Fold these 3 entries.
Entry 1:
Amino acid sequence: MTPEQADAFGAELDAIRERVIADLGERDATYIRKIIKAQRTLEVGGRALLWAGVLPPAWLAGTAMLAASKILDNMEIGHNVMHGQYDWMGDPALQGRNFEWDSACPSDQWRHSHNYMHHTYTNVLDMDRDIGYGILRMSEDQRWVPYYRGNALYAFLLMVLFQYGVALHELETERIRSGEISVADKKDTLKGIWGKVKKQTLKDYVAFPLLSGPFAPFTFAGNMTANLIRNVWSYSIIFCGHFPEGTQEFTPEEIENESRGMWYFRQILGSANLTGGKWFHIMSGNLSFQIEHHLFPDIPAHRHSEISQEVQEICERYGVPYNKGPLPQQFMTVIKKIWKLGFKPS
């Protein structure tokens, strides 16, 4: 793409953003309030059913409802609100800079590692720490070391413990392992992580089970299972939006003096969409439209489905690949990549 083409490409995408921002209003406010109401209803209903967990149908229903509420809280509410997508409403409860979510990761740390570092330096090696989360080898350009023989195992552990993996994101464990920094250098970060992990642990595994009285074991197991479901789902959606076959990584040198149009270009090449129905998109936090999210992270995510076809048409005109596919297909390519990159290059 020539500089002139990149500028024209960027101008067309800027026009989409400006049009959507100008159109924000009551239907967007109504949408997020309905989602919040649904999330709270699912949580209250799920926790109530877990108190009757001695009956298997009640336990299964309660666990499913609680898992759905946690997914909505993390994906469609927390993630999107913390991007500032609803700051324009002026509602103190929906201000991105103050929002706290139901996750082990402190929201202030998330806003730095995700909103700033990841969305500014998307898929740039040694700058975007979402490439492998400091744990995995997710690019052939990452230097292989014997540690990566455990790539598949680390990926599985990250999946089932995802909220804790995200919580440790800002700790920069790879820099600690290499000796570049020490644990003492991250004292304040660790303090924030421990405070949030402690709060979440007490809520899910102490307070609510104790409130259940003799049914405490059922509530404990339900909370643990709901968190596991949320972790696996979040991991699957996020990894399928960033690492399936066809997505690309970049070097710091490649983004020097990057224009707005080339920034857009990089966001698209480093992202992938997932196809599905309305409720699939809602439960994914509309991160099933990862391309549009990377292009316009501050636009309410439920709007991404409305502009995705237009974005795809622009990409087609400029010869830019637009990666999309169903979740199972994309996830299989992610698994293959994780497995392959664990072996020493020949």
Entry 2:
Amino acid sequence: MKSTSSALVHALDLGTGPARVVVKDSIDIAGYPTRAGCAALAETPPATRHAAIVERTLAAGYRLVGKANLHELAFGMSGLNAWTGTPENPRFPALIPGGSSSGSAAAVAAGLAEIGIGTDTGGSIRVPAACCGVYGLKPSFGRLDRRGVMPAHSSLDCVGPLSADLDTLIAFMAAVDPTFSASADNTPPSLCALAVSADPAIRGAVAACLESAGLDSTTCPLPLMDEAYAAAMVLINRETYLACRPWLDSGRLGADVERRLRAAAEITDAEVHEAEAVRRAFAASVDRLLEGHTVLALPTLPHFPLTLAAAEAGQQDLTISALVRPFNLSGHPALSLPLAPDHGRPVSLQLVGRRGDDAGVCRAARYLLARSAATPSIKGDAYV
């Protein structure tokens, strides 16, 4: 088994099935503390019961092999963690692993597990999936039970899987959610390519993927994307501050997280009210566009990830979530698929579907994967 530095914070051996799973350490596993990568939680007692997603995973016959590392308090996009260590990006070691589910993405990219369970409040599954060159699904909001997940309350957060193989990810969703069925379907998906701002090389790779799959697609604007990003930032800041303020004066928070929490304390009720209005308008805008299309297609990341050296020197990049965070606000399912790298840098395509049609998003991804010359074949930790 190949290892990757700091991807896991606990080794486990729970369950008897052959398929291995790592679980983000913001999710309760009975008998183990949930520390969320934060020194302020170092003395947290072990959880007394499994989170709902852990119960379902074990009942479905999977084997838990580790608790995965993360960006502290799941409140950052780089995946760096000065307390628990930063997971190495196995396929792109000079770059950040992405956050906040950095350990889950790194573990599946390195072959430590077939499935990584992460959480996605503002891109925290899809960003590390894109950075590490694996698949990552943010389900429709509320699809997978969040009981036992930190923070206890969120209007944005979703539990979801990451995997190095799309069919493995789909099989996991079907195993833990009996309402999910992505049976084989060769019907071409109706696709709308969103006109968004992104690095030309990334836009070109996404366009090439869609073109080589032979799909007829239209290019459409999606109103309120920028406003939805800003509104989602307001809400994640307010909700994370309310959940984490007991530790703000502990002296045991990382500098980046402490700065963000102190800034989040300044969010006003008026800003929250305005963000909720944007949520309703943007969700309706996405729904309207999906009335005539199976999925929306756009890059997962607007630009290439930071180098690890730049991030360790203190550079921040929350805008890496500019194309993913809006769909946390709207609640639509979104899947990140790796494409062929560009000069040693990861590129990913994001597909967004109708609320509740997570399986339709996965079927569209399977269709593209089977027909597009721009989607790589991944063996172990290498693209071929």
Entry 3:
Amino acid sequence: MRDDEWWLATAGDTLIWARLRVLDAGTAEVFDCDGATLPYDSEDTARAALMDAEFVALDGLDADDANARGFDLDALTPPSAREDDALRARMVVKLTRRQ
């Protein structure tokens, strides 16, 4: 299994996280903000589903993209927890808007 890849979407002043994980078999899964783990037949299919839902890859964002979405990229850290049940509560974050 490769490292997790974090994706995000914004809705108003809310940031919504999704975690993309590619499995050894070449399949992928997305852990979403509702705590569901959605299976996909490939990494490409999972990425397409995230993009269709207006998510963007965190590692593809630059400072201008972040500013347009209303947050400071340098202050952004993906959520973490030992278990997915605990992670679910951290997948939706209220943004503090920059002045």
